[in-house]
Amino acid sequence: GQQLNQSPQSMFIQEGEDVSMNCTSSSIFNTWLWYKQDPGEGPVLLIALYKAGELTSNGRLTAQFGITRKDSFLNISASIPSDVGIYFCAGDSIQGAQKLVFGQGTRLTINP
Amino acid sequence: ETGVTQSPTHLIKTRGQQVTLRCSSQSGHNTVSWYQQALGQGPQFIFQYYREEENGRGNFPPRFSGLQFPNYSSELNVNALELDDSALYLCASSTPGANEQYFGPGTRLTVT
To answer: What is each CA distance from B49 to A102, B20, B55, B65, B70, in whole angstroms?
Structure first.
């Protein structure tokens, strides 16, 4: 099935460092979303982006909807231990259709 | 407010058998989407139900079928199980046109 290209696949950082991950697609999406998934749980929505060029923040998280509508990035500033988990980008080709296409995920590990 | 619940939590089946997974949507949510998440991958859209009718389907064979009930709860049925059907099955509920879906914790299916 179709998936978005998400990178990096994994990250090992020190607490306090900033994190950046991105997602690209060969197709246009009209909504970009970023989710976090903890072990044994379903994905939880972090940020939703609805307009090309949009830059949105949620606390220490910032995400942008690429101008071409084929990419998005997520930044996490000043990482803390609870940021550990798997981050997924997701796109919806029709806004509000809720038939999401997901990336492969970025596994974030924070070294003590 | 009750979140999305799924049952069972874990399930082990033999190749060729049939399985039914259940999902109770969040209060007030009448749209339910099902996703398959293979180990180490992002979720893949299976299908969506709205007003008890299938409202869109991903690239999954007909042996994956579903139901939605008047109380908006839903079932995912898989016939003739194959080894590759082993995955975490996620249910997400939402209201029509909304961009946010709320995911349940998933059902881990193992096919041996």
So the answer is: 19, 16, 5, 11, 11
pLDDT digits (tens, 9 = 90+) for A15-52: 999 999 999 999 999 999 999 999 889 999 999 999 99
Q: What is the torsional sign of CA B85, A101, A34, A109?
A: positive
* Structure token pair of residue B103: 């995911």
Q: Does A34 touch chain B if contact means CB atoms closer than 8 Å?
A: no
Over the stretch A53-74, which tens digit does the pLDDT of each residue have? 999 999 999 999 999 999 999 9
The answer to whether the Cβ–Cβ distance between B104 and A42 falls below 8 Å is yes
Distance from CA of B45 to the nearest CA of A (A): 6
Write the pLDDT tens digit of every residue in B12-65.
999 999 999 999 998 889 999 999 999 999 999 999 999 999 999 999 999 999
Per-residue three-class SS string for A22-40: EEECCCCCCEEEEEEECCC
